[in-house]
Every structure is written in structure tokens, then in C-alpha cells.
Amino acid sequence: MLSAANHPHECTVFVLPGLGLDASSASAIAAAADPRLRVVGIDLLDRGRAASVDDLADTALERIAAEADGGPFLVCGHSLGGKVAARVMTRVLAGTEPVFGLVGAVLLAPSPPTPEPMPDDKRAEMLATAQGEHLSRADAEAFVAANIAAPLAADLRDAAIDAVVRQPASAWRDWLTAGSLEDATRLVGVLDLPVVVLAGDDDEALGADAQPDIVADVYPRARVERMPGVGHLLPYEAPERVAAVLAETWQAIRAAAPVVPTEWGRVIASSRVDVAVRRTLAQRALVDDRDRAPRTLNRAQVETLRALAALLVPQGEGGTIDLAVRIDDMLAEGGTDGWRPVGSPADPVAYGLGLDAIAAVWPSEVTEQRSLIVRLITDGIDAAGLGTDGIRSWFEDARNDLLRMWLAHPASLARIGFDGFAVGGTGPRPAGWATIATGERETWEPSELGQTVVEDAA
Q: The organism sits in which domain of life (predicted)?
């Protein structure tokens, strides 16, 4: 495992290397990394086995859990590591792992969850070079040369060759005969989070021409960036560009969503939190896709709801939760409370009617907008299909929904100092509290919550 030097950072990047490479493939990326990022290389193949994606994901998650600090992190998977990254992210978002903080990914010529598109003759050729304990240096040199578009600097070339020689040939054989042929589509599903895919023009099987089709079904938010003059070994051929994209990706996420504080992330990752609760909090922490098509409301209604949310639930500076998008999802999934006055339309219909009525009279000045909100609460306005009383009733529900959506986010729970979600746990008995008192906290609780209570040993 390779870590960048200790320094204050905002986000960790876990680099999962490609076939034949190891944690050292992150070195050049780490050297070029933005100071806000801590880059950690992960060894995947040093145990000599790569027969299944979950086998490699076990290794990756064990090492990520050991290195994670509870703060936000990106996954950067290269080639084989890209296929493993998909499974790692699925498991983190499922809440089954003692890890929290996944915010997105940058994938480098990733192998797909489906069987890797590799010609039979190339697979046979690679297997022929992996029959001993390790590849020979000559075969390692040939492997590196075949996977780059232009000669590398001597130090990078030697580092890549050394990494290939170090890897157990048994892992190569496992991957070529089993792991790369595995169809992990059902294990991975759809990963709806921010993803950037970098791919070289001179990479035949996993390059820029192939990647849009490879990632479309798995990563609905993926953006594919074509890299001219680059082959398959992006960590060595273009480490500066990889580092720049990592920084750009983090900046975009940081600007668009609130960050869960590190101490709170460690609590969520701990054994005090049930798998189902961790899963829910991990998914709620992901940045919203503000550009996606609405599922229930129309775009104009979503914009009106955003304008209302900005005044009703102000979120302060920094990234904000897109409460309107989350309510649209709630309506699409039938997640409302189901209560409404007799004769009122169903919630999705009521939202559309209410938002249309508000949009028709929505003023441009903030002071007037606030006055309209007070009027909606007290007197109501005429709304086709709802009436004056009906829109007052609906608007009360809408305000509750907006507040619930804000409060459900783990960053909001941290903001109000609520850690009551951490009393279940993954053990045979609920974790619970030993001490409940104003201004006091137990040792596991975030330090901002009060004075630590230490049990008397006597």
C-alpha cells in the first residue's frame, strides 16, 4: 500500500491498479496531486490470486478500511482495477463494509463488469508469458511497450517494468482465465454517482472508442474524456492529467454537496451502525444529479420547488442538498406519508397543481417571495384543482417534506449533533449508550458533542 506524505487534506483517493501493476502505480499521480487530495495506492494482486471480482474486492476493501479516515474519498480504478472498483463501490453503498465516505470515481481505461473484450490470441499470448512464479524482465518490458502510445521517461518506464516483474504470475493466470471473463453485471447493477472516465486514443480494447458503450449501463452520470496520444497505461503515460481530473472531480463534488465531517464518517463506518442504516446514509450522502430529467414533476415545477426550498430551508454556504430533486424522487418512489385531507388529490398530483399555482404568481424580488410564502401559510392562494384551503394543506406537507429531506442527510445530522443512528450495530446486541447527560459524551461520539465521559474503573 502506498500513501502520500501526511498533510492536511480534504479527500482521499484510493488507486486500484491494473493487471500486472501494484500500489506504486499511484506514485506519479500522488506526486502531481492537488494538496487537498491524499493519494493512496492499493495492492490488489500481491496475494497471488485474482480468480473473481469479489476476491479482489475483498482485498481492496480490507485495505481501504485500514487506510480510510472517515472523510470523503474517491476511487480511481485502472483497467482490472476499474472492474474491481465497480464492485467495491457497490459494496460500500450497500452498507455491508466498515467504510463510509464514497463520493465518486475517476476510472482509467476501466475493464467493464461484463467479460473483458480481449481477443483470444492476445489472451493466449499473455498466458504464455505467465507460466512461472513471475514474468521475466524481458516479458515485462514487452508488456509495457505494448500498452503505451509513446516511450515513457526512463524512471517511469523502469518503475512500470519493476511493478510487472513483482506481481505473482499466478494472479495473471487467475485473471486471464477467470476474473476477466466473469460477468459481474448483476453484482454491480447501476452506480448513480459522479464518474469521470479517462481513456487513450491508442488503447485498442479499452480505449476512448470503446468506453462510452462499456460504462453507459453502469454509470448513468459518467463523462468520458478522450486522451490523444495515450495508450493503456494512463498512470504512467498521463499522471499529471489524471491528477488534474481527480482535483476537478473533487472540486465539483465539494461545491455541489455538503461534506460529512470526518469524525461523523468514522462513527457511521463503525460497528455501532446497522448495515441498513449505513446503506441509507451512504446513498443519501451522494451529490445530487441536478441535470437529470425529473421523474414525476416537470422541469419548471422542479425549479419552482428549488426556489421555495432556498427560502424555506436555507442551507448556508458551501455545497447544498438539492431538496427539489430528492422530493421528485420521493414522489416517483411513493415515499410520501400517505396522509391528505378527504377529497385532495394524490401527492404527485397535488405537488404539480400547487407548484404551478405558485409559479403563476411568483415574484422576482426576494422580499415579495417571502411575503407570498407567508400568504401561502396563512390565507392560501387560489389554485386550480386544490382551492385555497387545499393549497394551504398541501403547502404544509411540502414544508415538512423539504425539512425531512434536509434532515435525512448525514451532514445535516452532524450539523444538529444527532448521533442516535449509532445505537444499533452489526453485533448480536444493540450498541446503545452507557451515559446520557447534557454536555457529556461517550468516547465513541464526535468530540464536538461535549465533555468525554470516562467510566470509573473501580
A: Bacteria
